[in-house]
Protein 1
Amino acid sequence: MTNDSREVVQGRGGRREPTSRRARVLTAARDLFFERGVERTSIEDITQSAGVAHGTFYLYFKTKDDAVNAVMASVASEVVARIAEAAAQPGVAALEKIAVIREALVGLSATAPTPARDLVAHYHGPEHRDVHDRLAHEVNRQLVTVVADVIAQGVAEGVFRVTDPTTAAAFVLSAVEGLDLLDPAAANGAKRADDLAVFVLRGLGADA
């Protein structure tokens, strides 16, 4: 049995549709992690919500933490897609695009707001460090060109003053990742995110 295994379910209008059991399990895990938090969600909760047998979970994930990693990879992919879409919007100022990028990336950091905070904080635990670091590197690799294009747009608009947008983009992404070095339990997480925005904008030469 592979991760591409399919089962047939009854669709709308009586049409029978193939669906991925792994996708159903992953969606159920994500919904429950967001709603209850990781610690208060059991594997049995996930399989019941997905409508699959308990053993089906283990066809795709060895442990609940494996499901956490998969959920976070899915969330990260959505964040990258959202940033790329926002960055490509015509007629939108670079500063507005930077604001969208900042909001999306902070949502992946240890200071993420609810409802994702419990999931993201768990993911930033030491047991996930290797996976987290690989995922963060991949996200930044995919985004560096996207962010560089926004910075170049800001330079053309006269709001940013940098000579190399690509280098500046790498610095910006590294600065956001730096949030993970701070205590996620601190009460001033929102202020830290605002301070980061000021730091980044000043680094780009804007009036923060």
Protein 2
Amino acid sequence: MNNIKTFLIQTIDNIVTHDFSFTLIEAIKYHNWYENKKVYDYILQETIQLPLDEDYKPYKEDLENIVPIGSVEFVLKYLNKYYNINNIKPINIPQQLMKPEYLKRWIIERATDTNIINTGETPIFVKDNTKIKGWTNIVEHNRGYPPGEYLISEYVEIDSEWRVFVFNNRLVGLQNYSGDFTMFPDVGLIKKMIIDFNYSSAYTLDIGINDKGTFVIELHDFFSCGLYGFSDYKVLPLMFINTWNKLIGG
């Protein structure tokens, strides 16, 4: 295999189905056109199996140039098969952002009771703190949820939701994905969050707006994340590569 970074892009029934995959393909074409040479390559594939002979065991240098792109399940299967990594812990809301000016609601960062009941009068939002795609739900009064470690939040109304794209600790994109797109978030506050988090890898920061102002919803490492129109071709491939290196410990 060559030394060019090659994106192994998931298809379903031979169709590219994720917005980030479609946009990445266009970004790859842009880079190859702009540089007038092959800067990146991509392979469309239904499975995580590397495009090698069946009896060929991939060498480390082969794996170093492959970046899987697809659903969370697709990426996790690849990590398990080729790197023996079984889980990626979600960021959710990091300790650096556990400040009233960023939260604007009460939060329990690590709830670990084994038989938890919502004894309050209002619903609470419960999200698994240990694995991506773990148990997540809105829990009503006098209802319980499975044993585990959770981030628990006061349930609040959200009038507008935005996804912030961050690379090299720099705001590179901001897209509305739900609610009133005319309600614009406090960009100054978002930049303060980015500075306080000071994260070395690419990520997304989901932001809500209601009558209390702009607040953090949750954060995600930059893989398997909807783009909602974000299409900065210059940085998009680098963001995927940057996150992949972080996931495999590079």
